[in-house]
Amino acid sequence: MYEGLMRNKFIGLVALLVFSILAIAFSITVEGATGGFAMFLSIPSFIFVIGVGGGLNFMRKHTFADDELGKSLRNDIVLAGWLGFIVGSVLAFGGNTDSIADIPSAYLSAAIIPVLYGYVIGAIAEAFMTK
Known about the structure:
Layout: H1 2-29, H2 43-60, H3 69-93, H4 105-129
């Protein structure tokens, strides 16, 4: 029973990754969206989301039952993604610029990546933590 459950979770994870990558590739190559796959990769954002979300969850771990851990982890990781957005926004807007037009769009897109990471990683974490 448990083996089949884990197999389903891994198949779902592979499907999520494959279809997400295909959708991004389609947008870039066929639809003509600007940018590339590298815009979706940010090691500092990943570390921030996992570290802050995991830390928040670990601090409160003793307060919930085992069946609540996945949902709580998801909520904390999503919150960490939004906190990462705020940090990224401060970094983007904190420079010596006179208007929002002076801020490179790469800074703004980098500020949004932690939110994406928070939602995706949070959903994956919840799926793996629930029975």
